[in-house]
Amino acid sequence: MSKLLEARDLRKSYGNGESRVNVLNGIDLDLEQGTTTALVGASGAGKSTLLHLLGALDHPSGGTVRFRGDDIFRKSDRELAAFRNKSIGFVFQFHHLLPEFSALENVMMPALIARVPRRDAISLASALLADVGLGHRLTHRPGELSGGEQQRVAIARALVLSPDLLLADEPTGNLDMKTSDGVHALLGDLQKKHGLTLVVVTHNERLAAAMGRTVHLTDGKLELTSI
Ligand SMILES: Nc1ncnc2c1ncn2[C@@H]1O[C@H](COP(=O)(O)OP(=O)(O)OP(=O)(O)O)[C@@H](O)[C@H]1O
Hints:
The protein has 227 residues and is an alpha/beta fold.
């Protein structure tokens, strides 16, 4: 197995002086290519903060993240944005689909922004929507879809530029249990099909245990709780 990502002594603080809060206090984490990691921890433990650093959405206060050996925070902002668009897909609890666009258009959007030719973007997006079980909902707008279906569209959108790493931050946080199980199962299937490296933040320890290894964030440090 080859290493996709290596975080070392990753630190993040917010605020200054007396209002300074140390959220991450030296995180070491290795992600092997094609593996799934569930990230669990209490509310406010810093799970989203860590995911944002792994996905280069924010800069750490200290430490390094190497992606295929490349120290990502040495890149300029412009290089970092290009790296992120190419290599990392994000799924959030609130998926921010564009309400006035169809499912197909929502999934195509990152591809069009990345200047993928329209015809290719349509076929990529249609295939991904079929993969997430929505091949029959291409022209529906988000408001015409259920919560679980909307999250499936968001997952398809996250995959449209073929990322190596998919980061999902409580993707089932506002779904009922049955729908959550379906979305987690889908993430597992897509991880295998696309050979993705997947990190999923979840409060649901039952789903976490079913996903692969679990790492637990507590007091700003990570503990491996299961493999
Ligand atoms: N931009 C920010 N400025 C200041 N403090 C922040 C900022 N972002 C997060 N924090 C603080 O960092 C801590 C960790 O937040 P984070 O959202 O990473 O936790 P979490 O484990 O994802 O929580 P939850 O499970 O409730 O989503 C919290 O105390 C939060 O208030």
